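[SOLVED] Need 3D model of a two-part complex

Original post:
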Amino acid sequence: MKQHKIYVVGIGPGEYEKMTIQAARVLESCDVIVGYTVYVDLVKEHFPGKVFLTTPMKQEVKRCELAFEEAVKGKAVAMICSGDAGVYGMAGLMLEVGHGYPDCQVEVVAGVTAATGGAAVLGAPLIHDFALISLSDLLTPWEKIEKRLICASQADFVVCLYNPSSRKRGDYLRKACERMLEYKSGDTVCGIVSNIGRPGENMRILTLEELKETPVDMFTTVFVGNSQTMVIDGNMVTPRGYRMK
Amino acid sequence: MKQHKIYVVGIGPGEYEKMTIQAARVLESCDVIVGYTVYVDLVKEHFPGKVFLTTPMKQEVKRCELAFEEAVKGKAVAMICSGDAGVYGMAGLMLEVGHGYPDCQVEVVAGVTAATGGAAVLGAPLIHDFALISLSDLLTPWEKIEKRLICASQADFVVCLYNPSSRKRGDYLRKACERMLEYKSGDTVCGIVSNIGRPGENMRILTLEELKETPVDMFTTVFVGNSQTMVIDGNMVTPRGYRMK
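Solution:
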């Protein structure tokens, strides 16, 4: 039995009520909440009286160490992430860094990730098999990302893209669409959702050919349908299989 | 503006507190809660005074019609699903059936799906790109499922398998492992989680070679790592990319 428990909590898309009841209870029970500045700002007002510690982007290892240092002092600590802590989130790094803090037990609290949060806004694009791919090549070679786009398209997966754009990667979504268009039809039903569960939430349904020409920002999640995906009353819907009645 | 609003609510893995605050609020606001018997039993005690309507497995279309019929009578109605309503859930079918009820507006409320709920139990297997594949060939030809297993393995995706087994499909997980072993190493770190967020929750970490020989039941979710996935202090962890310090 380890002496200290430290939580890694996915807070969901942003809105307080899209967090799980467990996430809210854990945060209420903590003394210290650690996170990236933007996420801390999303929850701050709902958890008065807590100590909030933040580090900027690219200081993720430091952020984890900060959390563990508080825990070994005897504080009840939660590291927060937007969406789910286990999907491009901090759960993995917390477990890696936690290896150096053998008295601390890391517990991950799941949340609603942008894929499912965004899917709910669009309708039901992820009902069947899908692949989640991040277009960020900060830690992954672009060739590997392209390979995934191609293989996912060959196998007719619905594809959900995280990090479709950034200041330095303005043309990555276009490049990704070009790879997918080698195996997916230009008419494939696609959807984009920005600011999921936050002020300014916005969605649009379009074809893969149109998506290629559409600029998106870093707060956008992109959905590319499979060969069966259709538009029903303005919603993006993938049926459950290949033999619908 | 449509006259009636009808909700499709993902209740998460099972435990009440793993549901989102929004899901709980919506269910509290409803008169009628419709669902598959097993899911209704999971929530019943937390929402006293509601009318619960159920249909058995394979009566999904009828279940949707039941929900819409209540809504057009003026009742506040929610259709519930385990996990997320948009991942192998009822959101798609509700939108399809809803086309016949033009006065009803369908709203999907996202939840924690077994992939992220199970990942939290194992550690952090889904931190990087992953593919979700159902092994059920009820609506999808097995050749299509095999193609997805192969393509996902070729591109070094982490693979999460839903419906890995059933009475009629006892050897499907073995067959799936054989396909993945064509491109993934036998040492690949894998994890299985059963009864996520329910009594009897159980997890195990093993290799892909071992997974091939392991019988699982239909309440199990299976995780197959990528080439970078490792075991840290008993947890299954996939690092964020390919260039970790």
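Edit: Chain B is about 30% helix and 25% strand.
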